[in-house]
């Protein structure tokens, strides 16, 4: 039977696309399904383990918050497996500003503290807001605007998981104000006042 | 052979899920894959034809623009087929404000006039803007913020197609200002000034 | 906060598979999900714009018709985004002969003139035919035989969109008569007469 | 531990959508993903077993051939599982005429006799033909025209499997000639001669 | 503009399949894509929040472990969104025995304590084992055998997320020994000794 | 019209990702969607034909059984097409031991002899077992434990098809006993006795 085992092993081991997993070769060219697979013979258990989420992110910034992602770019073992994870740290009054993940739904689990979180549906612009305490879970459907805010008195920590190895992250403020989109086009397409636009462009490093 | 034809027809006609198509029963309960299928025997060619896009939408509103959708809710023949379509009308200075489609990519084809359109990537918040003339096409990747603006002197018309029968539409201004999301939470999660928030809530009918 | 923006940008910009988009490198090897992505830093707005559809295709041929595709091979920006587009020109009496798209559904929008279009279901071989006028839309479910015909008196123009960046196009006449499939096999598998087969092979350049 | 087992069983047994399987309720309304699931408590092993393929189909018809499908309509256990199966019987000179499966690829395995099979790509209309003997396998990519022919001297039998529970089947001859599509439209969209069209309409029961 | 907002709301609110989300009606019949959607007007924020994971599961059982799922059956808000979550509690020496999730990959995040976890590839039966400490993450590719074990001295807690709302859970021991599969068939298909089989059937409540 | 045919051919032939098919380049790096495509110009009919299944596999081994796969690694023509096939040979008393396919459902067709087959659901660990005779078909849902056994008196042969070009194969005995997973971890995670573990590790070549 030893022979048989070897035979099966042989049948499947000479190839870099496995039914089992496809650890990302990040340096090569990606494609719509993700990254190319590393040869299974080069893969070790450490490709399936990510150790960066045990430490708090640095929240000494103007949002008093930090996101530490374990997306496919940081954690190549999730390539092709349909999920990824990240850590949120929110100092008191910290906020992950209004944002979307263009390609994934999100589930948030509160590990410590309290987090007020909400999302807005496209259906009648209904708002779904809740203050979550330790152990609570909230789901944010794919592509919809949502935010997380620590209105408690201690640091809040959450684990967030996504339905894609590469969920993307589009923070509305950064999309509007942290680039060279002309103030004229931005104002016409958002109805924001010129003063407001210029003020936030200055804070976020935008030009135009 | 007639018999054979009949036999094949029989094999497949007694059932409401067809390999071929699945015209939506909009009144029943939907599910993550779309709507239940109407019985093929009840389906006629008119279920596959939509006639509402030949007429300009009414642009006498404050955005000087109109969207006429032929999504699955209006055009049940596209249910389960992975695409849908709509018509855009933009009077001079008209604008489809910054928005996303949570579940679909979009291709815009300019039928008449000139349209300045743009989208913003989540990757470094890069802006991709272009002024399109009659016959030009632009693609807006799924879930990313984008806008369309008529900065020409005549009415502009475009046909837009989507990669989903039910693409959704989340206009950022409506999501922020046209509901009961409290000004406090909104300001904290967008860094917009209180005066700006209140001004736009008033215009768009928001409360809180 | 500037720092934070930069940080986010950094996190995601060093890689050629983006959550946002994946502009095709057409020269490399494709795979079942599409083409490899170009590095985002090499991508410009022009990769998302296609300008070839503003001009009528040349209809001085025996079908008096032209198809101008903006599929992924011509329009690399749609790679991985689940849709594509094309322009149809039909001179009076012009026809896009019976054909299928092996991998996509199609929505047709009549921009000018009148088009009689139809498809045939596999379910009892039911025919769905309609004469469409300017502004009308018709959907052709994936993989089913369909045709478009200008029985009006002026040139007809349509925009067609597909549920795949690479929908394929199999025109039955070309598949039967424009290659080296032996007349014997073709006649046995279609019940067409030998004279008919030889006549159309001659017109369409087939041998065998 | 007994308790624990019961607990797990309880957690998952009160619901008709199971991660495991979803045996079709064929009488209810289908939807784009297939049919509704029967309650697992009503499911028995016989829902996963199909016994109709052991017997030769009746080939005393003008194509000297028979297809016995075990698609979801006949074999509800495959609902949602992404595959199905059928039996082909081909008497000498029997043929499964040119056809497509709009929604599935096919693999054919020759159980008995010899079968000449072929498909035509949309890419340059290339023909791929081969005479297969007992034990040979051929794959026909989704949506492409293909045929199977017994040019041997004994009955041929094949097992064909599909990449979908509901692959559909569109036989070109039936689509063209076995319905009420007007001869005029058919001739314009296929370039077939009027005599040819009328002859085959007569054989296959078509009108118009 | 108020009118416009209302118009958009109207367009999309009269239907129970939304682009945005599809909260499960658990009592109706499921289908391969999940459960039918509740009407959006009946949905509240509490449908998107799950509060059961803040409390430790009861580990006073023979595996000294507990799984508290927030799968679609317990947490209907994740229906159709491609992910779900659960809590693991492992007392010292507690174990989640060898198991698979037939339809999902898993990411485990250690909230407290130490967990030794491993999976086995089908490729040459390679073992990937690691002892994880607080904050570490490990991914278990879909369908592969894996286990989790607390070999530390304090209770261990983990949050596990899945790439499907309904991942399923097949514990090998329960599948082998906690049902009426005959000992004869089980022994022939596993090479386990009769005494071993009977011993574990007794512990786990199996018959046959 | 010849020109037109050539034009279409040209449009689509210069690229290695075709809508039609994607024959695998097995030597290059795979990715989550499968293998890169060979250039269509290098593809011949033999890429779509597999001839290895006509001959019985060698069953003179301790399981008295053989699996001859035509998965993508052996049969590159199925790459990206969503299915594959294999041949089972079972001498009298031969067995394909308890196993799963992590990424595919399976349909088994009995070509010769009798096969007792079964699978176990995760739902309450229900067993579905049946003795199949020539011509019978059984479906094994994706990811669930199943086995096949010849309890007849002649050799049994079956054709099995899968819903994926690369279904994977995890035989529980090999996963447990044919590698270097430590006996201690294995015993803790399976409740098997040390003697049983050591006995089977010896038979199957495991260490630790």
Automatic annotation (TrEMBL), chains A, B, C, D, E, F:
Binding site for Mn(2+): 99, 101, 106, 146
Main location: secreted
Signal peptide annotation: 1-18
Example GO molecular function: manganese ion binding
Gene3D superfamilies with a match to the protein in the record: Jelly Rolls
Keyword Manganese carried by entry: yes
Chain ranges passing through the membrane: none
Disulfide bonds: 22-37
CDD domains noted in UniProt: cupin_OxOx
Binding site for oxalate: 101, 106
Entry's Gene Ontology cellular component terms: apoplast
Compartment annotation: Secreted, Extracellular space, Apoplast
Record keywords, A-Z: Apoplast, Disulfide bond, Glycoprotein, Manganese, Metal-binding, Receptor, Secreted, Signal
Domain Cupin type-1 positions: 51-198
Family to which the UniProt record says this protein belongs: Belongs to the germin family.
Name by which UniProt lists this protein: Germin-like protein
Organism: Populus deltoides
Lineage of origin: Eukaryota, Viridiplantae, Streptophyta, Embryophyta, Tracheophyta
